[in-house]
From TrEMBL:
Residues 6-254 form the ABC transporter domain. GO terms for molecular function: ATP binding. This is D-methionine transport system ATP-binding protein. It comes from the Bacteria. Pfam families: ABC_tran, NIL. InterPro entries: AAA+_ATPase (IPR003593), ABC_transporter-like_ATP-bd (IPR003439), ABC_transporter-like_CS (IPR017871), ACT-like_dom_sf (IPR045865), MetN_ABC (IPR041701), MetN_ABC_transporter-like (IPR050086), NIL_domain (IPR018449), P-loop_NTPase (IPR027417). The lineage of its organism: Bacteria, Bacillati, Actinomycetota, Actinomycetes, Micrococcales. It comes from Isoptericola halotolerans.
Amino acid sequence: MSQPIISFRDAVKEFPGRGGRRRARRSAPAVRAVDGVTLDIAAGEIFGVIGYSGAGKSTLVRLVNALETTTAGSVVVDGTDLTGLSEARLRPVRAGIGMIFQQFNLLRSRTVAGNVAYPLEVAGWSRTDRDARVAELLAFVGIADKAAAYPSALSGGQKQRVGIARALATNPKILLADEATSALDPETTADVLALLQRVNRELGITVVVITHEMEVVRSICHRVAVMERGRVVELGDAYRVFSAPQQPVTRRFVASALRDQPSPAVLDRLRGRHPGRIVTVRVDEVSGSSAQVMEVLADRGVHGTIVYGGITEVAERPYGSLTLELSGDDAAVHAALAGLRAVTSVVDHGTAALPVTEGSDR
Ligand SMILES: Nc1ncnc2c1ncn2[C@@H]1O[C@H](COP(=O)(O)OP(=O)(O)OP(=O)(O)O)[C@@H](O)[C@H]1O
């Protein structure tokens, strides 16, 4: 991994318990929103933090721009340990970090250009430099024609483009995106994610995305941390983590992104409709490719019909499973099953007459 630009070391953030409603009641215990996180985010990567609501994702990124301070442990950003720093010392660190939000947080009384110019005004840029920079940023995010519009006249996707232009205004090294696409429809989400990818590739900015949507991680993240109850429960290359999920929470995210695994009810219908043997085979770089699967069937003289499944991409690499009906004489089907098991992971569902319930390995 290249040089880390953000390092968490045993980082803990505890919030005091909210007092009970009555004095007589004991107050609620403290909440450990971040519970001992050790994590390095490399300069130049798109790093995803995924977890369900309340997992601690927002608190974790708020430690990066010092909107929250650690209760214990440390956070180092671009070589500066934030622990115990004064507001004055934190200012230059914050200046190197841009942030975008789910609700965009635009100033309603300012035009698009005025919103993007705002951080430049705060940083003391001259009028001429500001105008040039705003024009450059609006062109980069693809809304140059909206410079004079007010936020109320923009779609959600356009508002987030303004948010991104504003976050990039003062040339940060890091962009934090907190649920930046959660308020957008799928098509607009894809456009905004593609823009974040350009921010990363063309400007070399490290992007940290916080999300509860597997789709976001699947489409743009190089590496990912899966969070649950304040802890990082899985961490690594996005493809590795999602092609071999170890934790139940990670498996739930994988299942949500790709409805490729037939449910028990679907399996009953498939077995009813197709007399052959029903099997589900994994198709990815770690297990086997669909070409290998088809080759095994051809070698054994077994006919394979795809009856269910889906293949998508995680981190731009193939990933998914196919459910096949295998038809042929018993010995050939047995040989084909053994051959498939040699090239990928296989779940045998049997036939309508002899159904098999094997645990899925995912
Ligand atoms: N200022 C605060 N005071 C008290 N508790 C807090 C505070 N901020 C967060 N928490 C608690 O910390 C835990 C983690 O919250 P956090 O917002 O970081 O989670 P999250 O994964 O970002 O979820 P969400 O997407 O719902 O915001 C939750 O139990 C939350 O109630």
